[in-house]
Amino acid sequence: MAKSSPKSKAKSGDKSLSTRSIHAGEPRRKYADSLTTPIIQTSTFTFKNSKHIEDYTKKGKEHFEYGRYGNPTAQIAERRLANLEGAEDCVVFSSGMSAITTTILTLVQSGDHIVITDDSYKKTLEFCRSYLKQFGIGCTIVPFGKYSALEKAIRKNTRFIFSESPTNPYLNIFDLVKLKKIASRYKLLTLIDSTFSTPFNQRPLEFGIDLVLHSCTKYLGGHNDILAGAVLGRKELVDKIRNLHKSMGGTIDPHCCYLLLRGLKTFPLRVAKQNEAGLKVAQFLERHPRVKKVYYPFLKSHRHYKIAKEQMKGGSGVVTFEIKGNINTSKRFLDALKLCYIGPSLGGVETLITHPALVSYYDYTRKQRYELGITDTLFRLAVGIEDTQDIIDDLNRALNQSR
Ligand SMILES: *Cc1c(COP(=O)(O)O)cnc(C)c1O
Known about the structure:
Distance between the termini: 39 Å
Bound molecules: pyridoxal-5'-phosphate
CATH architecture of the largest domain: 3-Layer(aba) Sandwich
Shape: globular
């Protein structure tokens, strides 16, 4: 079980996460006394008269002006997410990548340097490695979990350390206590992409992490029907990001915010179920004769089992595994599945399975893939909320047919 909770409770009120997932961030009485948060589908907002304009521009009275600068439905999504994560403030974006790139660009300028771990989302790494260079920003990619290498990579002009935890696809866990210690020694900001864990399973801010990032496309939205992202942390930092966001324009649509808010209402239920199902499926796979190796942070066999148990409440629904055989065995296994859909992404109610070598890394050579651990028989399963035994039966049948 995660150690910490009292601090976040104090900040977020006394109510439990499941109650806050449904009500936090909303006014008690909504437009026309509707029970659900209305979708304010507008690009612009009007002023009543000239006094209203001046109250807004000169006296700073709260008002929505233009859709890219803010929207009431989006604001409620931000307030709810901030409450759930125990953060002072939050900005929502049109995608996780928009949240990540806008956040990074807010924190650096030409001549700066950043440190990121190699086990990060493919597009995050690509942005840091290739695009930051165009602006004269240096980036050192350090091996995940090598804390002394990470410390050695820090330079005078380093601004922050960025990592994911858990990572994709091997579900490696970053020791947040160690990360914070190193960062404090050099007065660096720390950023954690917490997409795989959600505030149900992990609370990076309680470890002193400065900014938490989410692809809300995954567990927080939870229904494989939206793209959304968020950054959370201290108001002073989040305000700066919000300001650049207004120029970058990765604005989330109000209808999308509605779906996010709806998804959030059930996210503790879903993630609790996915924690349980993930572990059951991982245990099943570990016993299966056609399976070579299973990676799941709450299995004792996982290399980061101990840290996972200390800093997380559950292992979530992602289970990564390697089967015995070759690329053709993998194809036969995929083709035999009937319940699990083949597709990227994770965190939704539908069980999805992806074969990273054929999907996300199709453009890599076999050698490049193997260096990253993306082998021909590696699968990432994102367990949904269907009956767990049905998922296991589907995997079992397909594994037996893959031979
Ligand atoms: C999906 C994902 C992203 C990107 O989010 P999008 O919403 O697809 O833009 C970033 N980080 C992690 C860990 C992800 O899983």
